[in-house]
Amino acid sequence: MWHRETLSLKARSRGFHLITDEIVSGLAPMQEITTGLLHLQLLHTSASLTLNENADPDVRHDMEAFLRDRIPGDLPYFRHTMEGPDDMPAHIKASLLGTQLTLAVERGRLATGTWQGIWLGEHREQGGSRRVLATLQGE
């Protein structure tokens, strides 16, 4: 079976957000898959997807603090500044973390580790709603 759909995520504040439940609840056909893959592609260049800690929100806070410290918005050599001081740093973070994930599906559920969850990294102050192209493949 193949299934593809675009999921819309609500606008979020700058930082990292656990979106596993939002993704899974938007993909009812996943329940039909015994063995397969879910590919997620974020359709934006200033946000990211990553798989990380799903229990302690301090991990998401610390990741944002670390990246803000390492990639500040006011570096004098940035040329791409017309969309605001947070735009170029957002592109860098999206490239470093990535905008795609491929996850195993087993017996209708994501086959993730005990403490793993899907994060949306919102790297803009006003990023707006985000779209994720989800492709399910399996039997």
TrEMBL record:
Domain of life where this protein originates: Bacteria
Pfam families per the UniProt record, alphabetical: YjbQ
Transmembrane segments annotated in the record for this chain: none
Family: Belongs to the UPF0047 family.
Annotated PANTHER family: UNCHARACTERIZED PROTEIN YJBQ-RELATED, UPF0047 PROTEIN C4A8.02C
Protein name from the UniProt record: Secondary thiamine-phosphate synthase enzyme
Lineage of origin: Bacteria, Pseudomonadati, Pseudomonadota, Gammaproteobacteria, Oceanospirillales
